[in-house]
Amino acid sequence: MPAQQKKLIFCTAGVLSLACALGTAAAVGTQLWVRGTILCTTGALLVNASGPELHKFIGDIQYGLFSGQRVRQCGLGGRPFQFSFFPDLLKIIPASIHVSVILFCTVLIVFALVGAGFFMFNAFGSPYETLHGPVGLYLWSFISCSCGCLIMILFSSEVKIHHLSEKIANFKEGTFTFKTHREQFANSFWTILVCSLVQFLNALLIRFAGFEFPFSKSKDSGTITGAVDLMY
């Protein structure tokens, strides 16, 4: 492949990797990871609410990795409540999983930035044979993509398996009991999915540029090299 086309491919991969890092950093700081509604089951059972009356007992909830807000409704209008995971909810959430999600987000940002730098270096500089060359490019893309997948798996298990929304909804609620009525992953969660796909696309761009996967070498080249060594 001509050098100009390789430069264009590496520049494209570098820009995508940089956008991935910035997108992940923006997603970490938002409250748009999960959105949903919560039902005040205690109030609904007290008045035997059904149909249109049930909407008076359905509130809203949304949260991210560090903070969020909920609006509780128990028939007397909405009452907003702001909360923070650290240190408010630390005792009721699966802290190890939550901290791991934040840690992998940090690793994703760092390695996406590193990958962007090396992509640009390979586009405009003289690539080295090791970490600055194809091996390094595959490595940074693989680590970033793996971190993105782990973030989605861990956060999904935290929300779905450990019922994170219900734990947040019932935080400091002694009288009323809340149940998740509807929940869905919001924009920031899907940003992580897009970033993972971008890193996978970068690996395909490296292959498209003409570089073989670094851990597979043809047997013929090894045989020829050995024969040349024996001759000398």
From TrEMBL:
One of its GO terms (cellular component) is membrane. It is found in: Membrane. The keyword Manganese does not apply. The chain crosses the membrane at residues 97-123, 135-155, 189-209. InterPro entries: Clarin (IPR026748). Signal peptide: none annotated. One of its GO terms (biological process) is equilibrioception. Keywords: Membrane, Transmembrane, Transmembrane helix. It is a multi-pass membrane protein. PANTHER family: CLARIN, CLARIN-1. Belongs to the clarin family. This is CLRN1 protein. It comes from Drymodes brunneopygia.
